Structures are given as structure tokens and as C-alpha cells.
Amino acid sequence: LSPIVELNVGGEMYTTTLSTLKKHPGSKLAEMFTGQPKLRTDSEGRFFIDRPGTYFKYILEYLRSNQVPTQCIQDVYKEALFYDIEPLIKQLEDSPQIFGELVARKQFLARVPSYSENIELMIRIARAEAVASRRSSVIVCVVRTEEDAARCQDALNSLDMDKKSVVKFGPWKATPSISDLLDCIQMDVESKGYNISFQPHVAEKGFRFKSYDYFYKFLFTWW
Question: Are residues 167 and 79 part of one domain?
Fold first, then answer.
């Protein structure tokens, strides 16, 4: 291989040295250029990597000067994981953005039973009710303790609705509150491209419990 390498990364063109690309021998990026290159070339003979080219400049800058990026942290982190550049991965995980997501929020959500599955269930229910409608709603029951879970079940039994359409989150053993979990639900559904909001669910007159103790309505707006 020539010591000077021309790259086409997702349509963005880069020129660098072979030694820069192989700076971290155990990385996937280094392996791409070890021995016989394992990459296709474009019409101009440049090595082609089918990844977002916008963020590769931050990867390249780190390889050249050990400069950890301060912009587009989440996206650069994904690319660092793909290229398996371990020192960069560790340094990015120490940044407030990644640390907060991985160590704080993700660790909390890991203690909420079936969290990811419930997010998908909410979306399926909302999409099923969206036919010929501008908005659709999903009722969510949020309980933090086992005691609340039992009360929630009693409340569900007195609700005049299809219990299968109520998505239950909790209980969990962690510091964050119900409002924190509600924010997480909204954040993760919105990250999938949906426009949603939520409010306490107000049940019909004569309901045995204050509905806002456990129940919330998530509103999906489609257009």
C-alpha cells in the first residue's frame, strides 16, 4: 500500500497516511488496512467506507493528534464503536453527555422491567388507533413500588377500558422519580421520530383512585 491513502467515507473525501489509519493496531479501522485491504474502491480508486463521512473527520483528528472531539459527541461515539478505537471510546465515555446517558439514564432504565418492550408496545397501540385520525392516545400506568403496583391493579379493575391497552411501567429500585421515568419515555419515543406529549389521565367520575397517582395519557400527534 502507498503510505498516502485516499478515502471515500460515505461520499466525503479524505487524504491521510497509512500509519495514521493503523495507529491503534487492535481497532477495526487498522484491520481494514492490514495486509490486503478489505475494502472496495470507488470509480477514482479511493478506498470506500460505507459510514457517515461527516463524523469521520473527528475520528481522523483523534488519530492524528489525540484530540478528543467536543462536538457531535453522540454521533462520534457511534463511529468510534464501529471502528473499535478503544482509547477514543473510553475518553468519550468520560464526557458528560455519554457518561450521563450510559451510567446514569441507561443504568436506571435497566432497572425498569421490560422498559424497551413497553416503549414498542406503546408505539404499536398508538399506530393501531391512528387510522383516519390526527391524534391517538395511549394510557400508561407508572408505579414505583410493589405496593403501588397492587393499588394500580385495583385501579385498573375499576377502569372502564380495555386493560390490554394500558401499558404498565415499574416498579423499580432506583432513585429517579415517576416524573423522571415519564421524561425518559417521552425522550425515547421522540428519538424514534414521533411527536408526543403526556399529561395526567383524568378518569370518569366515581373512580376509586385519584387517576393522576398512577395513570398518564401519552398523546401521539400524526399531522
Answer: no
What's this model's pTM, rounded to 2 decimal places? 0.75
What residues contact residue 115 under an 8 Å CB cut-off, 6+ apart? 109, 169
- Asked if residue 148 and residue 62 are part of one domain, the reply reads no
Beta bridge partners of 12: 9
Residue 14 structural domain: 4-94
pLDDT tens, the chain, 223 aa long: 689 999 999 999 999 999 999 999 999 999 999 877 678 999 999 999 999 999 999 999 999 999 999 999 999 999 999 999 999 999 999 999 899 988 899 999 999 999 999 999 999 999 999 999 999 999 999 999 988 888 877 777 766 555 568 899 999 999 999 999 999 999 999 999 999 999 998 765 544 555 457 889 999 999 9
Answer yes or no: are the C-beta atoms of 113 and 170 closer than 8 Å. yes
In-domain check, residue 100: no
